Amino acid sequence: MSEGVDPARLEDVAAIEAADPGGMLRQVASSAAQIREAQRLTAEAGIGALADDGRPRAIVVTGMGGSGISGDVLNAICGDGCPVPVVTVRGYRLPGWVGAADLVIAVSCSGGTEETLAVAAEAARRGCRLLFVGGAESPLAELGAQSRALFVPVRSVGQPRSTLWGLTVPLVLAARELGLVDVAPDVLESTAERLEEVAHRCRPDSEPFVNPAKRMALDLAGDVPMVWGTTAVAGTAAYRFCCQLNENAKYPGVHGVLPEANHNQVVAFDGFFAAKPGAEDFFRDRTDDAEHGLHLVVLRDAEEHEQVRKRREVSVEIARARGVPVTELASEGEHRLERIATLIALADYVTVYLAIALGVDPTPVTAIQELKARIA
C-alpha cells in the first residue's frame, strides 16, 4: 500500500535499491542487451526460412499483456505503408478470416499464457504459417514442435513487461525477412545505443533535478495522467506508458491518440477531474491534495500529420488555459524503431520511479496472480 508521495525516496541510491527488491530498474536497464541477444537467438532459430513461402496475406500477432504489446510495436514500426495488415489478437479466439495464407505469430514470455496457447493451437489446426516466440522448454515450445512452427526462444529478464525487446526483435526481424520493413543491422545497433543513453540519463544515482524520469515521476504523482500520442509510433508508446503505470506503479492512466482524442477525451478538461487550485505548482504538498486532477502527457513524434501538429498545439493551449498541467516528450532518432524505443524507455523509468516515490514495490502484480489462481 502506498505511504504517500515522498520525493526523498528518489534522492538516495540505497533507498531506491531497498524500495525495488525485485530489481525492476535493472530489468528496464537491460533493454539494449535484449536487442543484441534477440538478434542472435532469432538468427540461430533460422528466421530466414520464414520467407521461403513468400509474403503472407496478413500477419496476426497473438499475445497478452507485456507480450501482446510486441504486436502493436511491430505494427507501428511497419507503418501505414506496410503492404500487408498487422493485427494483434488479445483473447482466446482467432478471427474467422485467418487461414493458411496468413502468418500467425504467438508471443508469450513464459510460454504458458492460456489465451495465447489457445489461439496458437487454433492457428495450427487451420494450417496457418506459424512463428512462436517465448520461453524455452515451455508449453508454447512444445506446441511449436508438434505443429512444426518456427520457434524463437526468449530469455526473460524477470517480468514479461521488462522483456519487451527480447520479445519484439524476433517479430521485427521476421517482418524484415518478408520484405515488410527496412530495419538494417545498424538501425538495431543504433536503437540499442539510444536505449543505453536513456538508461544513463535515468540511472538511480542521477539527482531528480537532472534525471528526466525522476523529475517526471514527481510531477505526475497525485494526478491522473492522460497520455496522448501524435502518431502510430507515439500512440503505441502512450498505450505502453499507461500499461506500465498500471503494473509498475499500480496507478491509473488513460491513453489516447490524436486526432481521435480531440473527439472525446479533450472534453475531460472541463469535467470532474479538471484543474484544482495549485495544479501548476510543482512544489505543492501533493499528500494534502483532497482530490486528483488531470495531467496531460503528450508524446510527440517526427511523422506528425500537419493537422495533428495543429491539434497538438491547440490541445496543449486548451489544457493549460484550464489549469491542467502538461508534460511534452519528443521521440529521438530517425527510424521508427529508434523513436518508439526512446519513448517507451523513458516511460518505463518514469513508472518505476513513480512506484518508488509512492512507496510501492514496482515488481509484484499481486492482483493478476490472485485473478489467475481464482479462475484456474
What can you tell me about this protein's structure?
- With 376 residues, this protein is α/β, with parallel strands linked by helices.
- It folds into two domains: 7-24 and 203-357, Glucose-6-phosphate isomerase like protein, domain 1 (Rossmann fold, 3-Layer(aba) Sandwich); 30-189, Rossmann fold (3-Layer(aba) Sandwich), CATH 3.40.50.
- Helices cover 44% and strands 12% of the residues.
- It is built from 13 helices and nine strands.
What descriptors fit this protein?
376 residues; Rossmann fold; 13 helices; 4-stranded parallel sheet; alpha/beta; 5-stranded parallel sheet
Architecture per CATH nomenclature, i.e. the level-2 architecture of the largest domain: 3-Layer(aba) Sandwich
**Total DSSP E strands:** 9
Mean pLDDT: 94
Report the CATH topology name of the largest domain. Rossmann fold
Low-pLDDT stretches: 286-290
Query: What general outline do the C-alpha atoms trace?
Result: globular
Q: Identify the strand order in the major beta sheet.
A: 2-1-3-4-5
CATH top level of the largest domain is Alpha Beta
User: Radius of gyration over alpha carbons?
Assistant: 21 Å
In total, the number of domains comes to 2
Q: What is the beta-strand fraction?
A: 5-15%
Order of helices and strands: HHHEHEEHEHEHHHEHEEHEHH
Q: Count of helical segments?
A: 13
Q: How would you sum up the major sheet?
A: 5 strands, parallel
Distance between the termini: 26 Å
Name the CATH superfamily assignment of the largest domain.
Glucose-6-phosphate isomerase like protein, domain 1
> Which structural category do the helix and sheet elements fall into?
alpha/beta
State the helicity in percent bands.
40-55%
